[in-house]
Specification:
1003 residues; alpha/beta; Rossmann fold; seven-stranded mixed sheet; 35 helices; 40% helix; EC 1.2.4.2; oxidoreductase; ODO-1/KGD_C
Length: 1003
């Protein structure tokens, strides 16, 4: 009754429903400031309460619950008082309320602790996971070693994962039942568990053979997916048939390696011993992928375990593999490659789903991670050809070594392409074959983080660490990974923690550097024996079953070993990973298709390139209008600059149904602002107008995209893209030519020798802006000497100059083409020739900077028409050519220096005394045309002029070829030798240029 004496004002309506009473009471409990039990109407409530307490029937039944709560022990008078209320609560009642309050707070505290405990295991349980089959290291161990020595460590559990245990949650709480939060699936169908059971299940999920890192993911749906797949009770259970399949796959993986070791004990092969469960992982991914709609898998792999993977996953014939172990004469020309670098492809029938799956293993070199972006590019290209815009049908799998994954920067460059709209493959699966060592380097000296896979967490990718000796756990994470990738179209990383049984290679002695590790390894059973014991104990199989499987596979190995003896010639063609079916058969090998275009096409493309979008629909920068006005004026005059030459080349190929992909850091506008193939709306953020996309209604796709600031990864991506088909033109343009320096491994391992090693042709075009123009050493030279030095050409061998097919034969024999062009028409024909050839060759182009807008770098429209072609050499056509006997000096050159020579001889009025011959195609070297020009000026002194320093540029390549051809010494006009490619001091640049000019006009 004391309650109602404190009420000053009544705000509660008399006739309300029970739900309203409860709602209002809830508001009371939550806030004193909003109490409704106050005011003069308390007398009414008090009188009604007295009647209700005597006889409940005397008051409307809707008040029963309200008065029960008022008179019950759960209501606290303090919650209804305000600062004006008299204090009339007795001491005993206050004590009881305080006790209830304390108990409630304790219960809340315990429930919060349990929630934190669960989250701690989800976020950090992987640190205690038993993922190392050698049991030499865990993530927690790495973390504890980084703690300060003075820090008191009571135990790994409390410090590393869940500090609630032993502090808030103690032994007396272990059998207390707690409600499970929504953000966990450990309960399955149960909603409450004892603390003891909660911890037990968390330990099984997060601290067993699988360590999961996923709490860094941004997407809540991704988090929930991982919880469901990892926490749901029984999720790791396999059926009897699945267990038998795992056993058979392990048997094949282990016994293949044993067979290799028996037959070729001294042969280097980089076997999979210690990591054979990788076959189980890949086979599970392959099976599950077909169920999820995947039709093609493009794979990359380091050399360790490649032979096993080729046989057991890619289904390469054992006969072909075994034949690789003996020396044989190759059928085709080329350098070939060692067996553990080779690739293959197959349309494999998957019995589990009765579907065919294309599996392609890319060739790759010992530069372990160079292949990573290449495979991503191949996958993207295949998605394009299949019209697979969401990555539902084509997927990439990239296998890494642990030391390479954490140590090679191209891994990061590849990963960060994953969500870029113009480079994404909608999720790749990355598998780390974690040997826990890099050659002879321990992880503690190889990386600064507990896991080799930590770089992947930058990219919103879940990481699943798994013990390689637990075959069922390996199969489970594989299934989770493929389902995650197909559902969310994001990258996922599988860290298969295993070991090397025999060191870096079969020739290596690992005890030199890792004696403790290898003492442990020598005591380890193979994974098939470990799993056999498990399923034998479960009664899944009998020993007779296992013996039968082992005998069947051994018989198969012996059969193919005998067949391999009959193979007498090595075929490099058998190892092509991306065949161009029908292309070579459909081409005339002795003919280059027409590269000129008709006047109608030229006019259509040129006028389209000068036309701005309607101003009412798209607001273009005012500077663009000025550029378009200049273009229109040139079109009217029938002249093309470099930008117009590009547009005519690309537009005509798009008309011819050739897919073009042009990428680089600034390609949409052009580094020097010459191209402008994409306009940006000046009033709407993100709105663009792509000029050449609307050229023809039925044209092919023009994929023009600015790229991220990484040359290694992007160039590798475009190399892979170019491998996909001969019916596309892939162009990568460096911001400046020297930017290609950071992508050198791609040039060295894939572009320059890919055809020689693996019969992988590519029509890739690499555009490198080049020119010594006072911009300093970093933005001047594209280092043409590097690319020329890698030309597979003998300088002492002059081809048959009477052979009319010599130019085409030279191109067919070349490993790539190197050019330094000076006219838009020549650029146009060169680009179109890439598609017109009956084969494909990489093209390295030194492109202009100053020349992009210089009048010397222009061409009349007639040079683009039908009947015209690429000029390997541009001969003198001025006054000197009219009176060749009086010419005193014949200067051969390449590139921008032609502008300097031409302007200088005009200035000095020496046009009739100095003849200029521009070598546009440096390799293959145009011996025939150069000899004709040399013979045309019988009295002239011969020189080669370059703007580069003498120890750089084309001189070191052309010197011997010119002198062998002419039978005489050739003068070099150049800057003096230098360690840097150019000076950054204007005074020195001017001095060098002055001296260069003096040498040019010196007779």
């Amino acid at each position: 009754m004391a309650l109602f004496r404190t009420i000053r004002k009544l705000t509660l309506p008399v006739h309300t429903s029970n739900s309203t009473h409860l709602m209002l009471l809830g508001r009371v409990v939550s806030s004193k400031a909003e109490t409704f039990l106050s005011g003069t109407n308390a007398n009414y409530l008090e009188a009604q309460y007295l009647n209700w307490s005597k006889s409940r029937g005397s008051v409307d039944p809707s008040w029963d619950r309200f008065y029960e709560s008022v008179s019950g022990p759960t209501l606290k008078i303090e919650e209804f008082e305000d600062e004006f209320s008299p204090k009339t609560i007795g001491q005993n009642k206050t004590s009881r309320s305080e006790k209830d309050d304390k108990e409630a707070k304790e219960r809340i505290k315990l429930h919060l602790a349990v929630q934190n405990l669960i989250r701690s295991y989800q976020a950090r349980g992987h640190l205690l996971a038993k993922t190392d089959p050698l049991n030499l290291s865990i993530g927690a161990g790495w973390l504890l070693k980084t703690q300060k020595p003075t820090m008191e460590i009571k135990g790994v559990d409390s410090v590393v994962v869940a500090r609630e245990i032993g502090t808030i949650l103690r032994e007396e709480h272990m059998d207390t039942v707690f409600e499970l939060p929504e953000r966990t699936c450990i309960g399955g169908t149960e909603t409450a568990l004892t603390l003891r059971e909660i911890i037990r299940r968390l330990e099984i999920v997060y601290c067993g053979p699988i360590g999961v890192e996923y709490m860094h993911l941004f997407d809540i749906d991704c988090l929930q997916f991982m919880r469901e797949k990892m926490e749901t009770p029984g999720c790791l259970q396999r059926t009897v048939e699945e267990k038998k399949l795992i056993m058979r796959r392990l048997t094949k993986a282990v016994y293949l390696e044993k067979y290799f070791a028996t037959k070729w004990p001294a042969e280097k092969r980089f076997g999979l011993e210690g990591g054979e469960s990788m076959i189980v992982m890949l086979e599970e991914i392959v099976d599950s992928s077909t169920q999820l709609g995947v039709e093609s898998i493009v794979m990359a792999m380091q050399h360790r375990g490649r032979l096993n993977m080729l046989v057991n996953v890619c289904r390469k014939q054992l006969t072909d593999i075994f034949a690789q172990f003996k020396p044989m004469e190759p059928k085709e020309p080329g350098s070939g490659d060692i067996k553990y670098h080779l690739g293959t492809f197959i349309h494999r029938f998957i019995r589990k789903t009765n579907k065919y799956l294309k599996v392609s293993m890319s060739c790759n070199p010992s530069h372990l991670e160079v292949v990573s972006p290449v495979v991503v590019g191949k996958a993207r290209a295949e998605q394009h050809w299949k019209g697979d815009n969401q990555g539902d049908k084509v997927m990439a799998i990239i296998m890494h070594g642990d030391a390479a994954f954490s140590g090679q920067g191209v891994v990061y460059e590849t990963l960060q392409l994953g969500n870029l709209p113009n480079f994404t493959t909608h999720g790749s699966i990355h598998i780390v074959c974690n040997n826990q060592i890099g050659y002879t380097t321990d992880p503690r000296f190889a990386r600064s983080s507990p896991y080799c896979s930590d770089v992947a967490k930058c990219m919103d990718a879940p990481v699943l660490h798994v013990n390689g000796d637990d075959a069922e756990a390996v199969a489970h994470v594989a299934k989770v990974a493929i389902e995650f990738r197909c559902k969310f179209k994001k990258d996922v990383v599988l860290d298969l923690v295993c070991y090397r049984r025999f060191g870096h290679s079969e020739e290596d002695e690992p005890m030199f550097t890792q004696p403790f590790m290898y003492k442990k390894i020598r005591s380890m059973e193979t994974v098939d024996k470990i799993y056999a014991k498990k399923i034998l104990a479960e009664g899944v199989v009998t020993q007779a079953d296992i013996n039968r499987w082992e005998k069947e596979y051994n018989d198969t190995l012996n059969k193919h070993f005998e067949l391999a003896k009959k193979v007498t010639k090595l075929s490099i063609m058998d190892w092509i990973d991306t065949p161009w079916t029908g292309f070579f058969e459909s081409c005339d090998p002795k003919k280059v298709k027409e590269t000129g275009i008709c006047e109608t096409s030229l006019s259509t493309i040129a006028h389209h390139f000068c036309k701005a979008p309607e101003p009412w629909a798209f607001e273009v920068h005012k500077g663009i209008h000025k550029i378009l006005e200049k273009r229109a004026k040139m079109v009217k005059e029938g002249v093309a600059d470099w930008a117009m030459g590009e547009a005519l080349a690309y537009g005509s190929l798009l008309r011819d149904k050739v897919h073009i992909r042009l990428t680089g850091e600034d390609v949409e506008r052009g580094t020097m602002a010459h191209r402008h193939h994409v306009y940006h709306h000046q009033g709407v953020d993100g709105a663009t107008h792509r000029v050449l996309d609307t050229l023809y209604a039925d044209q092919s796709l023009y994929s023009l995209h600015n790229s991220s600031l990484c040359e290694f990864g992007i160039l590798g991506f475009e190399v892979g893209y170019s491998y996909s088909s001969p019916n596309l033109l892939t162009i990568w343009e460096a911001q400046y030519g020297d930017f290609a320096d950071t992508a050198q491994p791609v040039f060295d391992t894939f572009i320059v020798n890919g055809e020689s090693k693996w019969v992988c042709q590519s029509g890739l075009v690499v555009q490198l802006p080049h020119g010594i123009d006072g911009a300093g050493p970093e933005h001047s030279s594209a280092r043409p000497e590097r690319y020329l030095q890698q030309a597979d050409d003998d300088e002492d061998v002059i081809p048959d100059l009477d052979d009319k097919n010599m130019p085409l034969n030279q191109l067919r024999a070349a490993n790539w083409i190197v050019c330094n062009l000076t006219t838009p028409a020549n650029y146009f024909h060169m680009i179109r020739r890439q598609i017109a050839l009956p084969f494909r060759k990489p093209l390295i182009l030194m492109t202009p900077k100053v020349g992009l807008k210089h009048p010397y770098y222009t061409s009349p429209f007639k040079d683009f028409l039908l009947g015209t072609q690429f000029q390997r050499v541009i001969r003198e056509t001025g006054p000197a050519s009219k009176d060749p006997k009086n010419v005193k000096k014949l200067i051969f050159c390449s590139g921008k220096v032609a502008i300097i020579i031409d302007e200088l001889r005009k200035e000095k009025k020496l046009q009739d005394k100095i003849a200029l011959c521009r070598i546009e195609q440096l390799y293959p070297f145009p011996y025939d045309l150069i000899l004709k020009e040399f013979c045309f000026y019988p009295s002239a002194k011969v020189a080669f002029c370059q703007e580069e320093h003498k120890n750089q540029g084309p001189w070191t390549f052309v010197r011997n070829r010119l002198e062998n051809l002419f039978g005489k010494k050739v003068e070099c006009i150049s800057r003096p030798p230098s360690a840097a490619s150019a000076t950054g001091i204007k005074w020195i640049h001017a001095k060098e240029l002055k001296e260069l000019k003096e040498k040019i006009i010196a007779m």
